[in-house]
Write a structure and sequence with these properties.
This protein has 288 residues and is α+β, with helices and mostly antiparallel strands. It is 29% helix and 25% strand. It has 2 domains: 5-110, D-amino Acid Aminotransferase, Chain A, domain 1; 116-277, D-amino Acid Aminotransferase, Chain A, domain 2 (Alpha-Beta Barrel). Strands 5, 6, 7, 8, 9, 10, 11, 12 and 13 form a 9-stranded mixed β-sheet that branches. The protein has a 5-stranded antiparallel β-sheet with strand order 4-3-1-2-14, with helices on both faces. Strand 11 (235-240) and strand 12 form a beta hairpin.
């Protein structure tokens, strides 16, 4: 474990660097505890297996290294990002024979978003870039080119983010976050996870949202969501581990609902923030 940035290096011939043959995941540090790490490790290991990457060490050792690196950083709030790489030694398409996979962990302050995203809401567009095929969409690999192009396209249009739509006309996901909708009848609808990344935050939020059924919501569903139906939603939500929950108030220059942040977005954000501080079964103490 090093704390000098000059020593934080990755070999240039690592397959992750020049071929995108690597996977990663991100977890949150909240008040000196790591939130929901086991769910993130589950997805991390699934992605590694799909990518035919050998695990660098047992899961328990990866967990220990993540916790130890967090402790060494001294950060009590922030983000942890960790990678498995294909290893160094080959500039070809196949990894070098006998290459040892790399395991890298980095602690950082976390991604910052404008306050206006939460107070006024986001404006998004349907991206012109095609959604990833399902195999690649459900794998959290280091190849994020479609996501980067989508984000750049949105920024160049003066907007905050984009939304993928699949070949059948159903809503996919945003650049590196999930999207969900509240129907006029109060049902929280989320796209199916078989062709988009299974967001750990979305999965947890869907569980927490059931506590709002009978008050803010009338139901919770994971299903195909045609764009035509989605545009008629009362609320549209952006969901991710760093952004948590943010309201989307405009899509392709048309308002969502009344064009203002809605009560479900606010309620879900409060539920998630509370869960991140108090869900003892999902929190790991960091021995600073």
């Amino acid at each position: 474990i090093v704390t000098d940035p000059a020593l934080m290096v990755v070999p240039f011939d690592d397959h992750m660097v020049h071929r995108g043959h690597g996977v990663f995941d991100t977890a949150a540090i909240v008040e000196g505890k790591i939130y929901d790490l086991e769910a993130h490790l589950d997805r991390f290991i699934r992605s590694a297996r799909t990518s035919r990457l050998t695990l660098p060490c047992p899961r328990e050792e990866m967990r220990e290294l993540i916790v130890a690196t967090t402790a060494a950083s001294g950060k009590r709030d922030g983000s942890i990002r960790y990678w498995i790489s294909g290893g160094p030694g080959s500039l070809g398409l196949a990894p070098a024979t006998g290459a040892e996979p790399g395991f890298f962990v980095m602690i950082f302050a976390g991604l910052a978003y404008p306050d206006t995203w939460f107070s006024q809401g986001l404006r998004v567009m349907t991206t012109t870039y095609p959604i990833k095929p399902a195999l690649y969409a459900v794998t959290k690999s280091t190849n994020y080119l479609p996501n980067v192009l989508m984000q750049l396209e949105a920024q160049e249009a003066g907007l905050d983010n984009g939304v993928f739509v699949d070949a059948d006309g159903n809503v996919g996901e945003s650049s590196n976050m999930n999207v969900a909708f509240v129907t006029p009848g109060g049902v929280l609808k989320h796209p199916r996870f078989d062709h988009i990344l299974s967001g750990c935050t979305s999965l947890r939020l869907l569980e927490l949202a059931r506590g709002l059924v009978g008050s803010r919501l009338s139901g919770v569903e994971v299903c195909d969501i045609p764009v035509s139906e989605a545009r008629g939603a009362r609320e549209m939500l952006l969901i991710g581990s760093s952004v948590k929950v943010a309201p989307i108030v405009e899509w392709d220059r048309a308002p969502i609902g009344d064009g203002k942040p809605g009560p479900v977005a606010h309620a879900l954000r409060e539920l998630l923030e509370q869960d991140m501080r108090s869900a003892t079964d999902r929190l790991i103490d960091v021995p600073y």
